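Wait, can you check?
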Amino acid sequence: MQHKVRRLTEQDAKIFRDIRLEALEDYPEAFQATYESAVDLPLEAYAVRLQMYALFGGFAGGQLQGFLGFTPLRNPKIAHKGVLWGMYVQPAARGTGLAAAMVEAALDHARQHVEQVLISVIADNTRARRFYEKMGFESYGVEPRALKIGGKYFDEEFRVKIL
């Protein structure tokens, strides 16, 4: 199936909201935001997010099947860095190359703004860790107990890619 990756716009707010809520509900350990904090947000809040941030959508068969955000850091001493965040690919699209296409699109955008890109991943998510390693992200540390969900702790691994 043919993949298409493009930057999402405020006109994509409804489809972004739907997939974002799916991601938060099905994989709460993968995101700092919670389903409960996002479900009652008005559609306009999602449109504003799409205006404020560079969010890339991965489409297959005309359907949004994944998303990924990029934000450059603003403080002058760290403005050479940016962060990839919120990566999600629906289970049916995993292993199809859509995730790699989304990351490449985000990195192409990032190259216009920063010198290196940071990403974090839950340390026990072996599949994601292998994927980011394949994409050229190198591990530089782990924060123990970075997230706590329902009494369970999750370590977070930090990775960097020099552009």
Remarks:
- The CA atoms of residues 75 and 81 lie 10 Å apart.
- Residues 3-162 form a domain with the Aminopeptidase fold (CATH 3.40.630.30).
- The chain has one domain: 3-162.
